[in-house]
Amino acid sequence: MIERCLQEEARLREFLKGAQVFRQGDVARAVFYVVDGEVQLCRFGRRGERIIVHRARAGEYFAEASLESKRYHCDAIVMKPARLLEVPAARFRYVLRSDPDFAQRWSALLSRQLQIVRARAERMSLVGAAERVRHYLATAGSGPRLEVELRGSIKDLAAELGLTHETLYRTLARMQKSGEIEREGSRLRRRRASV
Amino acid sequence: MIERCLQEEARLREFLKGAQVFRQGDVARAVFYVVDGEVQLCRFGRRGERIIVHRARAGEYFAEASLESKRYHCDAIVMKPARLLEVPAARFRYVLRSDPDFAQRWSALLSRQLQIVRARAERMSLVGAAERVRHYLATAGSGPRLEVELRGSIKDLAAELGLTHETLYRTLARMQKSGEIEREGSRLRRRRASV
DNA sequence: CGTCGCATTGATATCGCTCAAATCCGGTGG
DNA sequence: CCACCGGATTTGAGCGATATCAATGCGACG
Fold first, then answer.
1. Does domain A126-190 have CATH number 1.10.10.10?
2. Could you tell me the residue ranges of all domains in chain A?
3. Contacts with A, B 60-79, CB within 8 Å
4. How many CB atoms lie within 10 A of CB A75?
């Protein structure tokens, strides 16, 4: 749920699939909260490859950095029709200053984000597709078998892991055949319980 | 400089090169501030490869996540003899709640960290060593020629870019020969001004 | 029914990792 | 002052993993 203290500052906006909430280089005016739907923050390399910087889902904020930055650093593209709460950066800063409770929760939220992104960066420095899959399960999975509920397509996961989708398909197939992991619809887990 | 409001809460500790400030799995008791020296936060893969999660230098905090987490997620190893201010997590949280100014600055600091790490993760998803170098200059460089002052060895930079040092040497040599970049001691920049 | 995007598998080339070795450089101790 | 040492730097050779290109099947959706 969005913080109550922000709610009255926010404007609700609806977007269709494919819409752009903002583009790289736009003046950073607002922080957003996803009521429902999904927004992808991405950049495009010189050859048009899409690099997913972040995926914001229901219940998450995005463009937090607009509090600290003059302009947006990436595109925000609506992947699933979404309703977003738009909180002007100035209002947000004001609430942040005036509500210590909220400030604390906000810090906590940023810290958690930081951990997740660091895990991702760490994962990308691993060599070998299988190692990345293992690391992904280890950091994003839950329970003794490190189960993960895939929220998007395998292609999306491939992007998250910094692999091409072909390589990921093959790697998953190999890991299944060797009995290391199981797939069950959109669930992915280790076959044997981990340490 | 460390925040004045934290100073009286902190204990100054000195470490020799190679010392461990804490290890992965230790109970997360404190946030640290680097007065001088350098501390590397790293994990070790199963084959002993060192993965640098973060490098904290004079004027920076590290282990911010210990505010949100029961245990440390990585090792902290002193690379250059360091003096650290250790702020107990509880004290830190208290200051965070009671000093809105500080809370705001802390949020800003976390946001900036987040941006940097996101840039790093994005960089690692690029294919080709030269692309990574270009991206590094683009995100970490300053001025029209995207100049960067290298703070460590080329080996360190290689780790930051997720390449082996051999590959990075070769790539840099190639980029210099082709006239794309210049090296001047520990400075690295584009030869031609960027867009 | 046609189209579009995802899933899957195949073939191939390339790039970066690995192992190896020579040089350089700063520091350290005799 | 010199010998020595460890670590960084640099270059070489070869292999394997992954990106890339290509083709097909499949399901959703209009």
1. yes
2. 4-99, 126-190
3. 64-65, 67-69, 73
4. 19
